[in-house]
Predict the 3D structure of the following.
Amino acid sequence: MNGTTITLSRAKWPVVAVAKSSDLFHRPKKFPQTSRYDACRQKYSRAPISTPDPFLTSASEVIDVRTPAEFAEDHVPGALNLPVLDDQERVEVGTLYKEDVFAARKVGAALITANIACHLQDYFLEKPKDYSPLIYCWRGGPRSASLGIILAQIGFKVHVLEGGYRTYRQTVVRDLEELPGRFKFLMLSGKTGVGKTSILHKLQQQGEQVLDLEGAARHKGSILGLWAGETQPSQKAFESSLRSSLAQFSPSRPVWIESESSKVGLVQIPAHLFQQMRAAHRLELHVPMSWRIRQILRDYPHFTQDRVRLKELLGKLRKFHGARKLDYWFLLIDNSRWEELVESILTEHYDPAYSTSVKRNTEKGHNPTTLHVDSRTVIGLCEKYTAGRIAKISK
């Protein structure tokens, strides 16, 4: 007031701590009931274990939950098909999915849970507590997850394959590029009827490593070669079978294989395997024509019983041999002159085709070991090679 300056002391205000943003959204205090619930959930809640290994050795078994049609085309060797959707149901859900995703999910869930309930009652009910399946579907999606979650909640230790069947298929393709190069192949060759397949089977029975191409293809590799009452597997299933066999072989021992063209019936031999076959040392068998005829009549009895089917198949050779030759063969069939028929087909068709195939599919500079033997010594000579003399011809 009269020019006097008044100094005011700073007031001491209480210090207020500023809360962190995370503190503003703190969890509510747990009550005893909540704690008991969490403990119960941790104790009883289980989930399937994801794995990238389609050949998980610790699994009790492998379960394929895809449709029967998908399973028939190809599957993990030894897998059991327990579809959570059948073929028709998958089509229905897939068609609806294009129109209304949410509706399709509801219908799919209803169908899947109903099918799983049947599998629980019919198959899983008797499984022991230590049962541990590996489950897969097409791509590791809802179908395998649905069954996996339910089995895991029951208390089983469940594995689900990451990526599903596609992961398995990628493994097969990769292994068929890598595995053939690890082995030394010995190729048993010879004209149709020398008994190559039966010899390989006997070698296999004696513990030799044999890759049975015709067995995997269910076909003898000729126009008459489809097995009686059989259909050939798909290309994928054929490759699965080859991969499964190769994976069991030891690289320290030779692998016997039969001489084949690049195709066995309708299926194609994988490129890397066929490349190794072309470079393999070849044992070429020569046996008397009379023995070849007997061998063929023994291996193809169904054709002498179904003359209409035999003529139908031989008719495919018309473009190579003309109508006159076909008429002659049909005459032999009508008169049951089977030995004459077989010898004529061998000399006119199969033997020239074999010579052409060998020249085309064998790398230059690879001369075969030729065995001129009769039926009594074929097996003995092959045994001799595998018993110790194989090293000389395989270097």
In short: The CA atoms of residues 91 and 209 lie 43 Å apart. The chain has 16 helices and twelve strands.
